[in-house]
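tool_call: predict_structure(chain=1)
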Amino acid sequence: MSNGDVFVGEIIGTAILILVGAGVCAAVTLNHSRAKAAGWVVIPFGRGFGVLAGAYTAAPLSGGHPNPAATLGIATPGCRWRAPLIGGARAGVIYNLAS
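tool_result:
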């Protein structure tokens, strides 16, 4: 497994985590959403699903660490810690463009 594979896996996993997490919060709180006022339990379950989907997506490429703190702790000398930051930034840009 090359550093490029690990890097791409972390970007994709973190982007999924941020997009699903932010999306479920937006769905529950925005006025014109079909999920408006769906209840408090929807947000934790949606965020949990985002973590699960991001980790399972990144697992074959990078070991599934969409948490920047875990990645920094495992691979401080390498470039693995940049991938979750880039993935999160890309997800934020996609989210802002979509809303």
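agent: Helices lie at 3-29, 42-62, 68-74, 82-98. Proceeding to next step.
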